[in-house]
Amino acid sequence: MATPLENLESQLEMFIENIRQITIIVSDFQPQGQNVLNQKIQTIVSGLQEIDRLKSQVQDVHVPLEVFDYIDEGRNPQLYTKDCMEKAMNKNEAVKGKIDAYRRFRAHLLVELTNVFPAEMAKYRAIRGDERPMS
User: Fold this and answer.
1) What SS3 state is found at 129?
2) Cα separation of 92 and 30, whole Å?
3) Separation in Å, CA 114 to CA 107, 108, 126
4) What is d(CA 45, CA 132) in angstroms, rounded to the nearest whole number?
5) How far is CA 82 from CA 14, 75, 76, 118, 132, in A?
6) What is the dihedral of CA 66, 70, 73, 75, to 10 degrees?
7) Which has the closest alpha carbon to 42: 58, 59, 13, 22?
8) What pLDDT, in 10s, does the model give residues 2-44?
9) pTM for the structure as a whole
10) Are 70 and 76 in contact (CB under 8 A)?
11) Rounded CA gap, 40 and 22, in Å?
């Protein structure tokens, strides 16, 4: 059984194909082709009704607005996910670098404070439960 999203997708594909066919009929219209044109118009109306019926089944699908920007710019919307992942990885690297820098700073600060204030730092370590000697 196809998912509601797949049903909508196939209905949209059929609708697009019917629109393509009707443009061909209209671009080279002949009076004897009126019945065929009327049938295609009726098919398009039926297709729109079916799409309207299917839309309630995919109400929970949320598409980021940026995806529509990608489409408007003529870019592949599947690149949106790739770009988001790359941005997240870059941000993660930057944050990781900051965390590592703060850890190194803390370790260096504790060493220097231990050298300058050994008694106070011993009390600090005792309170924190960190009995490791600072080098």
Assistant:
1) coil
2) 63
3) 11, 10, 13
4) 78
5) 29, 12, 11, 52, 45
6) 170
7) 22
8) 788 888 899 999 999 999 999 988 888 888 888 988 999 999 9
9) 0.51
10) yes
11) 6
CB 128 within 8 A of CB 104: no
Residue at token pair 């988001």: 84
For 17, the token pair is 């194909």
Give start and end residues of each alpha helix (H) in the chain.
Answer: 4-27, 34-55, 65-72, 78-116, 118-128
Tell me the residue type at 3: T
Nearby residues of 24 by Cβ (< 8 Å), 6 or more positions away: none
